[in-house]
Amino acid sequence: MKVRVALALALAGLATPHFSAFAATTHTAKRVEGILADSRPCVFFTLDGVSLADALVPDSPYFALSKSHASYAELNALLLTAKATGRPVTITTSGSTVCGHAAVEFVLMT
After folding, report:
1. Which of 2, 31, 42, 46 sits at a 20 to 30 Å CA gap from 16?
2. Is the pTM of this model over 0.70?
3. CA Rg, the chain, in Å?
């Protein structure tokens, strides 16, 4: 009986969603303003009209895409294409930082 109760409680804990202390931020239909790549392990960029990338990093308009992100090559290609063509993008941060700036989780070219 105790094993069943413990198992039920454990399964209930696994089924409960876990939320980060910080929520992700999404910026929709924005144009890539500038892109900076240097020797650091991130590519940095800004979006036109966005003065705060994520509230997690006060007073910073910079987004950072980690070169170790699982989809780095694809996301960077989308950013470069969006910059070159002027097409808008939707950017979602992860709610954390990387290289001292808002970490990018998702890029959608619209």
Report:
1. 2
2. yes
3. 18
pLDDT tens-digit readout, 17-48: 333 446 899 999 999 999 999 999 999 999 99
Tens digits of residue pLDDT in 50-66: 999 999 999 999 999 99
- Tell me if 65 sits within 8 A of 104, measured CB to CB: yes
Contact partners, residue 4, CB within 8 Å, separation at least 6: none
In 3D space, the residue among 61, 65, 66 whose CA is nearest the CA of residue 48 turns out to be: 61
List residues bridging with 63 in a β-sheet. Answer: 45, 102
Interior/surface letters 50-71, b for 16+ CB within 10 angstroms, e for the rest: beebbebbeebbbbbbbeebee
Q: In this structure, what token pair is assigned to residue 80? A: 């470069």
**What is the DSSP secondary-structure string of 21-36?**
SS---EEEEE-EEEEE
d(C-alpha 101, C-alpha 94), whole Å: 11
At 85, which amino acid appears?
A: T
